[in-house]
Amino acid sequence: MTATHTLPPPVENHESFRNRLRLRYTPDQIELIDLAYDHAKYSHRNQIRDDGKTRVFEHARRVTLVIIDEFGITDIDIVIGGILHDTIEDAFLLTVRRIQLVFGGRAGRITDAVTKRKRESVEEYVRRLRLEEIAASIVKWADRIDNLRTLSAWSRKRQERKIKETRDLYWPLIGDIREVYPTLADTIEWLANEAISALGF
Description:
Elements: H1 14-21, H2 27-43, H3 56-70, H4 76-83, H5 87-90, H6 96-103, H7 105-114, H8 122-129, H9 134-149, H10 156-180, H11 182-198
Helix pairs in contact: 2-4, 3-4, 3-9, 4-7, 4-9, 6-7, 7-9, 9-10, 9-11, 10-11
């Protein structure tokens, strides 16, 4: 019997990210997305997530890959919103106005919409998000799916709290998305349930 070996997953990096874009976007669009990538990477430099190990930028890139690869979205403003979704809240380099000047008004509005305000409760945040363009809810769900997938590093109590928050507060956003993009809503719901099931819930 011939032994079989499982190859390790490919390393995700800047080159592999750009390669994903080549069949989906024009050269000018690729450069614009790549510029957002560089801005996010610089904005989040030296920032580590709550697990104490993962770079914040890795989360931003994974969220963007969920949008492109798993949601199948090619809308450049949504992609840029995914890359930059934490830059206003967690960094100082970019403001809404700067994002609008560089990447366009809609990309700026999407990024602003998904940015949680200081002292804004999750309930208030979701209510506000539901009043925004549906693109903002799409970005938020890409963010939430990545967060669910990385919950295994946390205590069972924190996992339970985050999953309850997801089901009670964020799940209605899927219904909003379904009114406009029913197939995408089904995909998001399936991915979210898959991530939750992987945790044993």
